[in-house]
Please model this.
Amino acid sequence: MKISYLLAFAMVVMACQNQRPDLRSIPIIPQPNSIKATGSVFELRRATSISVTGSPELMAVATYLKGKLQPSTGFDLNVILSEEKPGTGIYFKSSADQSLGDEGYTILIEEELITIASLKPAGAFWAAQTIRQLLPANIESSSRQEGVWQIPTGEITDSPLYSYRGAMLDVARHFFSVQDVKRYIDLIAAYKINALHLHLSDDQGWRIEIKSWPNLTTIGGKTEVGGGAGGFYTQLQYKEIVSYAQQRFITVIPEIDMPGHINSALASYGELNGGTIVPKEGRLEIAANANKVLDSKPKPTELYTGIEVGWSTLRFEKKATFKFVEDVVREISAITPGLYFHIGGDEAQVTKKTEYIKFINRFKEIVEAN
Model:
């Protein structure tokens, strides 16, 4: 009986030893176009180097990958500019394969060498995210972990199905610091999100410095939902966020919500206020001057910390309105290198329909001009 037990134990050990790792079994997000497994492993070791043939942008991606792998492994991986393909390590190179497009890549994983090829640096960056996912989960730890760092061998080919892959962060209703936004950028980058929609204004707070309208932040930026302290980004801080996102191949899309969701601006400058709806005890009531002739010296509205929507609006006939809109769009556009500017347009429940149509058409012209 002892011999039978020993024989059974030996068979289990042999079965475990013969079980070959399969690249296809690892849940990569998003799922790549093609995965082929070859049944062996690449092991990341202390002596592993990251080699690069190509542009400075590829060197930046390689350095980024080193920074992600170093805390948990404790390995000080050398990043080397190389004119030739190395025999071992992780190797980034440019590809001439046009079918990969701007964001596609291939990863060839062999026992001694991982070769990452891309037409553009963005593809290499997304490949780096895939490498992170192929390693054991504790590779994401911020402190040194014990363990063996292996990746199953095989070949991955990937390019995005959607050219726009977006995530939104609402910093208007609740303010988030620059460091919080950077953390959010890092998290969405890990899943190959390439657009950050930053919601910068709403009834409850104005979050971006406009130098020609300083009260927007000094007054409109000091509240948030629930009555917190609020906050705002200086233009320098906003540029820091944009640059941080660009380094991760993410485009920031700023949103200034108009003509509704605008109370933080109306509370900052009385000349923008033409009478509004105010939320009271769970219902919307018309303010005393809402349907009267526009006052030449209107008062600012009260700051707002609730969650009702649809009760504030800009007024099309006021001269100050479009000076305000043009200044805001101009200043933000000047520090936003992306292709898009979001003008909101939602839940404008107290804006007259005829005015709403004229507003959207005029906003479109102002954005295109900038």
Observations:
- Confidence is low (pLDDT under 50) at residues 12-17, 286-295.
